[in-house]
Here is the input.
Amino acid sequence: MLRGVAGAAGLAAVSGGLLTACSSDSDSSDKKSGGSSSTGSVAGSTVTFGSNYSDPAAKTAFAALTTAATASSQVKVTVNTVDHNTFQDNITSYLQGTPDDLFTWFAGYRMQYFAAQGLAQPLDDVWEKIGGNFGPAAKKLSTGLDGHQYLVPLYNYPWVVFYNKSEFAKHHYTVPTTWDEYIALAKQMKTDGLIPLAFADKDGWPALGTFDILNMRINGYDYHMQLMTHKIPWTDAGVATVFQHWAELLPYAQSGANGRIWQDAAKTLESKQAGMMFQGTNQVAAQYVTDKANLDDLDFFTFPTVNPKWGQDYMDAPTDGFMLSKKAKNTDAAKAILEYIGSGPAEAEYLKTDQWDVGLANGLQVPTYNAIQKKSVTEIGKCKAVAQFMDRDSDPAMAKAMISILQKFIDDPSTGNIASLQKSAEQQAKAIYTS
Amino acid sequence: MSSTSHADTAAAAQDGATAPVPRRRRGVRRLSLRDRIVVAVLLGIPLLLDLAFVWFPAIGTALLSFTKWNGVGSLHTQTCKPNVPSILNNGCWYGVQNYHQAATIYPEFWPAVRHNLIWLAVFVVIATPLGMLFAVLIDRGIRGSRMYQSILFLPVMLSLALVGIIWEFMYSQNYGLINTVIGHTSDSNAIDWLGNPHLNLWSVLVEATWRQSGYVMVLYLAGLKAVDPTLREAATVDGANAWQTFWRVVFPVMKPINIVVMVVTVIESLRAFDLVYITNKGINGLELLSVLVTSNIVGETQRVGFGSALGVVLLVISLVPISVFLYQTFRREEAS
Here is the structure.
C-alpha cells in the first residue's frame, strides 16, 4: 500500500501540469477532490486545518497566517484549534478517524513515523514549487523515510545558553567557548552567590535537550542520530562520556530540578538569581515576553565546544510545520494553502506576533525580528546540521523511557548509577525498536 | 412451546418436589407475553450495556495484551518476527512478551505496584480512621460542627485534578507556601516536595488524604445518623463510657457502612491517578499502575499491547478485594 501511495505521488509529480493549476484560479483542474467542484478551480472552496497552536500568542499568529493564505489563494480556511497536549496525545486516532485536511506537526522522525504508516500524503508537487524558498537542510527535515516530502516547515528555534547581559557586565563575565571555560565560569558564578545554571525537569522533557547537546558536542551529529534510532546501543562508551560530562555540570545546576517547572527556572534567570539557562528560545524568550521581563537584557551563546573535532557545528533547533492528512477531503485546495505557507511572506506574516521563533525560508526579511531572533537566524545558519530534539528524533516511546532515566540520573549522577541506567535504556530500546 | 420444554419441566418437578426451583419456574410461566417482553427489555438493555461497555472492553484488553500494536492499521494473527524494526512488526501476535517485559525490563512496573500498595495502606490506616474521627467529633455536636463539616467536606467537592493544582501552590520549591513559611526557598536549602522521589509520594498522599478523609467522614456521618439512639441510651444506662459505647455498641451496628467505606477505600486507592498525573505525569517516584496504562496507551506513539498487559495486571489486582467483598456479601445472604 505504501508503494501505491508513492507511485501515485510520482505520477502526480510527473504530470505536474494537473496540479500546477491548483495554485492559480485561472485554470481548472479535473482532479477529483471531495470538497471542491470537479469543474471549477480551488478558489472559493474550504479547507479545514487542525491546529495545536493553542497558546494565545501562537493562536493569534496562526490566525494571521491563515487569513493571509486565504487572501493569497482564495481558499477559505476553517481552523479547528485543539489544546497542544491533547492534540499530540490523540494524533494517532485523529489521523485514522476524520482528520482535518491539513494539520500542524513537527519535523524529524516524528513526521517520518506517521508518514511511513500512510497517515499523511506526500507533498512532492508542493515542494517542486516552494523548494526554491528553502535550503537543503529544511528540505531534508521535511523528507520522509521513503524520500518524499511530507511537511511544509514554518519556523524553528534554537536551544542555546541564555544569560542576562547586565549580569555578565556587572561581574565582568565573558562568554565561554570551551568546556573548561564553561565550568570555570559556573564555578565563578557560584562563588559570586549566583545559581550558575537555572534548571528544571519536572515536565521531564527539558533535560532531554541537555543530553542532546552534550551528545552532539562530544560524539557528533551522526552518532547522535544513530543513537536516537537505536543503530548504536545505549550501553556504548560514548553515552557514558555524555553522562560523565553532565555529572561534572550538575553541581552547578539548580538543585531539585525534578520538582521544578521550567517556567520557574526561567523566573530565577529573570530575577538574576541564576546566571545562565540552557533551553529553547521558544521557552525562555517567550517566558520573558509573557512575564513582561526585560527582553532586551536577554542574550544567549551557543553551547561551548567540548570535543574540538565537532566544535559548535550542531544544535537542537526543532522545526514545526504542516502536513496533509491521508484522508483529506479537499487535497487540491489544501496544497494551494501549503504553497502559500511555504513562502517567505507567509512566514513573515506569522512571525509578526511571535518574538522568539524564526522562519526557515531563504533570505527571509522579517522587520519585526528582535535581537534574539536575529541572532537565532545567524547561529542556526552557522550549523552544519540541526537535530530536532530527542522526542522528535526518536520513537516517542523511547523518549518517554529516557525522561524517567534522565530524572533518575539527575537524582543520582554516580558512576555506578550511570552504568545501570545505560543498561536499562538499552533494554527498553531493544523492546521498543527491534523486538 | 415445544414438547421438550414441557418434558423438562415435568422432570424437574418430579426430581425435586421439595426444592423451590419448580415453584419459581411455574411463577415465570404465569407471566403473560407482555410481561415477558417487559422483563426481556428491562433485563436485556442492561445486559447489552454490560456486555458492550464492561465485558467487551475487558476481554478486548486481555486479547490485545498478547499483541504488539501501535494503534495504526489492523491486527493480524501472525507471530511477531524477532529483530525486526517495530514499525514493520505491527499488529502481530506477541504471546506473553508484554508481561515478560513489564516484569523484567520495564523499570516503572515494580515501583508502580509498590506505590499502589502504599496508597492503599495509607488510605486504610490513616485516611479512613481520620475520617471516622472527624465524623464522631462532628456527630457529638461540638460547637461550630456545621462549619467544620463544611470545611472538611469542601475538598471532596473539588476534582482531584484541582486538588493537585491547589497543592502545587503549597509545595512549589521556590514560590510555594510551605517552603516560604519555613524559610527554605533558596537554592541550597529548598525542600523539593514534589521532585524528590523519596518525598513526593508522601507529599501527594497528604493531598489525597486531605480529600479522602472528608469523603469517609460524610459516609460515617450518614452511618452515625442511622444508629438507633435508644442503643446509646441503653449503653449509657448500663454505665458504659463514651469510648466503650462507640467501640462496643455503635461501631458494630455500623457494619454495613464499614463495608461500604472499605470498598470505597480500595476502589479509590486502585483508581488513584489524577493527583500524580497533574503533579508530574506519574514519573520519578510517583509511578502508579493506572498512570502506566495511560502513558502507554494514550500518546503519539502507542504501545497498545504493552499498555493492555499493564491494564490486565491492574484488573487482576482489583479482582482480589472485589472477590473478597462479593464472597462476604453472598455468604451473609445465604446465612440469613
Remarks:
- Chain B is about 70% helix and 0% strand.
- Chain B touches chain A through 46 residues (CB under 8 Å).
- The first strand of chain B starts at residue 67 and ends at 68.
- Strands of chain B lie at 67-68, 92-93.
